[in-house]
Every structure is written in C-alpha cells, then in structure tokens.
Amino acid sequence: MGREINLHRRAISTAGELAIIVHPHLADFPVPMNIDWFPLCLSLRVAFLSTALALAGGLWIAYLLANREFRGKDWLDAAVTLPLVLPPTVLGYYLLVLIGRASPIGKLWEEVFGSPLVFTWKAAVVAALLHALPLLVKSARAALESVDRSYERAARNLGASELKLFFRVSLPLAGRSILAATALAFARSLGDFGVTLMVAGNIPGKTQTLAVAIYDAVESGDGATARILVLVVSVVALLILTLANRLTPAGAPRT
Amino acid sequence: MLSARIRKTFAPRPDSAGFALDVEFAATQGVTVLFGPSGAGKTLMLDAVAGFVKPDEGRVMLDDEILYDGATKVCLPPQKRNCGYVFQNYALFPHMTLRENLAFAAERRPRLERHRRVVDMLEKFRLTEAAGRRPHEVSGGQRQRCSIARALIGEPKMLLLDEPATGLDAPLRAELYDALRRVKEDFKTPMLLVTHDLAECFELAEEMLIVHQGRVVQKGTPRLILDEPANLEVARLLGAFNLIEAEILTLDPGRDISRLRVGEFELNGPYFKGHLKGDRVTLCVRPEQLSAAARDGKPGPNQIPAELSRVVERPHGLRMEFTSPALASGVRVNISRGEYERLKETRTWVVEFPSESLRVV
Fold first, then answer.
1. Of A153, A161, A255, which has the smallest distance from its Cβ to B52's Cβ?
2. What ipTM was reported for this prediction?
3. Which phi and psi (to 5°) does residue B328 adopt?
4. What is the pLDDT of residue B347?
5. Domains along chain B?
6. Best label site of A99, B41, B80, B170, fewest CB within 10 Å?
C-alpha cells in the first residue's frame, strides 16, 4: 500500500518533469546520453514475433469463426476474447501454470531446447501473444465476414479449393482490414506490462521490456530515463494507430 | 442433361415463415427457364444443383454423374460439380483484372492450355481490350460478358444463371440475350436460367418450368404454356390474362360450340372438353385477342357493355381497362394506336369476345 502511494507520487513528479520537456528551451534540458536502449529493442522484437504468431494462429481461428458452424463456436469465441477482460495477474497466473517448469508444456520445452521457457524473453512473447490474439481474431473475423458471400460461392463454383479461396479471394478482399488489425495487435503487444512481469520477470538486459523498464526507472527514481522511454512508447503507439486508421477501408463497398 | 429431384424443408422461425421445396425437373439442350414469383424457390433449385445448398433428400444427376443422392449420402462439393454459375451481381472478383478473373477459373485446366483458353475466351466475348482492367473500371456489358466467359472457361456441362437480366437497362438486356444465344450456338452448353420476366422466357427458352410455392406447377414451351395455362394459378402467375367467371349453359361437341353465361350476358364459345353443362368455370382470355367497339343500341352477340376506366400507354399500342357489373375483376383490351384514334370519341363501349379467344382453365 505504502509502495503504491509512493509510486503515485513519483508518477506525479514524472508528469511535472514531462512539462519541462515540452518547454521551449529544450536544448537546456539534460538528455541522459548513457540510456540503455535494450528494452526498446527487446520490446520491438517481442512485438514482431508475437504479432507474427498471432497472425498465423489468429487468421485460422478467425476463418473458422467466420465460415464454419461447429459445436462450441460461442465458447471458442469467448475464450479467445477472454484476455481482453481478465486482470493481467489472472492471465499471468494461468500462463505460469500452463508453461511453468512443472507443466507438461514447460517440461517439453526444456527437453527440446535445453532451457526453461519461463523467465526468458520468449515467455514475454507468449505474454504479448495473449494480448495480440483477441484483437486480431475479433477484427479479422469481422473483416472476413464482411466479404460478400457471392465471391466465395463463385470461387468454389470455379473449382477453387478452400485454401485457394482463402488466400486468393477472401484474404485479399479483407486484406486492408486485417492489416489494420495487425497494426493494432502490434501496438498492443508492444505495451504489455503485467503478464510479462509475471512470466518473464524483470531481468535487465534479458527480459526487461519497455513497459517493465519504465516501471523500473520510475521505481528507482531515474526520471530522465523514464521520460525518454515514455515518450518513445507514446510516439510509436501514436504512429501505429494512425497507420491502422489509414488502413481501415472507408465504408464504401468496393466492387 | 440435368435431371433432379429435390426436396428441402426450412422449418418456420420467428423471423421467417417455413418453406418447403419439392420439385422434380430436367433440363436438356438449349435454355430451360425457371419462371415464378419471388420466393417461389427458383434460386434454391439452382443452388441445390450447384451444391451451395444441400437438399434433405432426392437426387441430382448431370449427364451420367451423380451430384447428389440422398439415399446413398453422396453430395459432391461445389468444386467438383462442373456447373458454371452466373451470379445475379456477376460476382467478378473486384481485386483481379478481367484476365485474372478468367485465369482464376482456368486453373483447373492443364498449364499449357490455360493461357490459350483465356486468350480465346477474351476474344470470343470481345473483352481483349478491357482484359487488363478491373471489374469496376469496365462497362456493364463487359462485366456481364466476362462473368459468362468465366463460367464457361472450365467447359462446364451445364450453365446456371440466376436472374442475369434483373436490374439491367434495355440495351444491356438485349446484349445479354444476344450473348446467351451465342453461347447456345457456339458452346452448346445447356442452360438453366431463373427469371420472373415472361418476355425473357419467350426471348430465350426452349422449355419453361413454372415454379410456385416450392413446386413445379407446369412445364412446356413458353408458347404452349401461354396458350394453355394448366390451371388458374399458372394463369395468374403469367399475369397476361383476363380471368372471367362464367357458367356453361350448353355444350355441343358435334358442332364444336358452347354457350356461356357471364353475368347477365351470353357468349358463344368453342366446345370445352372435359366440362359439363352447368359447370362454373374461369375463362382465361388474352387482352390482345379482344376488341373494343362503340356501343350501338343493343349489344351484339359476344359483346358485353362496359365502362372505360383507364387507358394505359404501352410500347406497341395501348391498353384499355374496362369495368362492368358482369365482369367482377374488369377486363383489359390491347389495341393498336390507330384503332384507338378511330374510337377515342366513343362515349359508351362494348367489349367483343371472339368465340375462339375463349379458353377455360
């Protein structure tokens, strides 16, 4: 509790210092030269990987949800959406149970790769994936469902296999929306904090992602580093969101 | 040749009434038209043949191949059915050029032949110039021809067309009929075409099936069906008749005549086979077989006095609509413009029913 108040105070002071950043005499302001860019690089790497994985798995799930009728469809939909609403601690706990060293998946990983999965940067990828997936599946499903059914019928009628239909017709037609969804998912996986902290920990130079590094910097009173990192995250997120908005097709149907 | 027996039921739901399709039909050479009102099940029949809809039971055969058989649970996917389908909105892939659309459809053919087929089809359907453009960049006629070419490029055994002329303006419609007639001659692919336009049936059809409430109620050439609608329902669906309640007074097979009573008036008609004296029947009379005249004293034989309620312009002449106490739902008469000019000063009218125009449904 006391720590939380402390953090709160620090946040206020950080905000105060942020006001100095936007002050006209920017040149007078001391920028720490020895800032460690590892967290940014790690975060980008984690975000790229988790977005790629989310794309690979999410498109497939979105396709199932959009095109097939099967038992438990509602449950699958709900389960995929769950990470959007559950507290990060709950997700982190589940992940620890699922991929921890004692779990079957954790054991298998350790056997194959020779080292445990948890508390490595790869676990951070899993954590980010958890956040990227629901965003991607939701938007990709909507995008795939918005493709006029007669195109799919036409493709089937012309002898196209389901795979050819998906890659040559559905995907290109829903492409822009899916790209926008991918950008969103990327932005989201860049910013995970809670789950990453629980399953990957906070090991500087190993598993310390941007969000965790900011927390660390604030916690240790390194306001200068925190400022820079906060600014970097905000700018990157803003750029990605603008890109996503540009990619989202206008309401006009394309014929 | 296609022969099909299809049964499919949709249970009633809160947002829609139930529907039952129960049809048996065949389509051989040339154009077979499915004619009927909206919601009669025409498109459902087409979709069941194409494999987009799985029937509950029945059997669909194309030449000697079984596409669907309820008893043995055979149901080929649409990909394997080898039926070309021309969609109402054409469904040309918007992200591909016309050439790519054709190439997409030609991919199941051997690689060497593919390119030649595409070029060949582009030429046949006069699309060579527009081949590099996307569907939204070409004219309606080019889109239409491209969708037919795309459906034909895989050499299907049957061509299915879902209301291809709906929403087209007159020139495009004429162009479509032209293209389809050419398909009939050049490709000899049998066609099954859905429409609710009677003129289209005459334009294209060798055989016409009247579909109503999920059943085929009559089949035959368009001419035959228009001359002898099988029942009142068909006559109503065709929408081209005056339907008049009458009672048969006398029948004389020897002289091939009959006398009918319509309201308080009597008409001489031909002999009606299979009917008895005293039967109440519905006469079905084509508007162009009637004529209107000025009333001159007592109405003559086969004339019924009537009041003119409306005159409607038609492309080739005029339609006069009359009411009369004897004719409950009124009567329509089609006449030429010249005839109308001659008569238009007339105040009181009679409608003349020539004996040979009277037909019982």
1. A153
2. 0.81
3. -55, -45
4. 84
5. 2-236 (3.40.50.300), 241-357 (2.40.50.100)
6. B170
Q: What is the pLDDT of residues B40-97, one digit of tens each?
A: 999 999 999 999 999 999 999 999 999 999 999 999 999 999 999 999 889 999 999 9
Tell me if A114 is assigned to some domain.
yes
Number of domains in chain A: 1
Spell out the residues 6+ positions from residue B348 whose beta carbon is closer than 8 angstroms to its own.
B294, B295, B305
Separation between Cα atoms, residue B205 and residue B197, nearest integer Å: 12
Contact A159 B89 (CB under 8 A): no
For residue A231, tell me if it sits in a domain. no
The token pair that represents B153 in the structure block: 């490029």
Banded model confidence at residue A250, pLDDT cuts 50, 70, 90: low
CATH number at residue A61: 1.10.3720.10
Residue A60 lies in a domain: yes
| Closest CA in chain A for residue B103 | A158
Interface test with A, best of B80, B88, B95 (most A CBs within 10 A): B95
- The continuous run of DSSP H or E covering A110 comes out as helix A104-113
Phi, psi dihedrals of residue A161, rounded to the nearest 5°: -70, 165
- Is 60 exceeded by the pLDDT of residue A24? no
Around Cβ B267, how many Cβ atoms within 10 Å? 23
Domain assignment of residue A250, yes or no = no
Residues of chain B short of pLDDT 70, as ranges, are none
Residue with tokens 């995970």: A192
CA dist B270 to A57, A255, B85, B223, B245, Å?
Answer: 77, 57, 46, 20, 16
According to the model, what pLDDT value does residue B68 have?
Answer: 95
Two structure tokens written together for A115? 């080292």
Q: What percent of chain A has pLDDT over 70?
A: 84
Give the domain extent around A99. 38-208
Residues 6+ apart with CB under 8 A from B149: B102, B121, B122, B124, B125, B127
Q: What is the pLDDT of residues B251-285, one digit of tens each?
A: 888 898 899 998 888 899 999 888 888 889 988 89
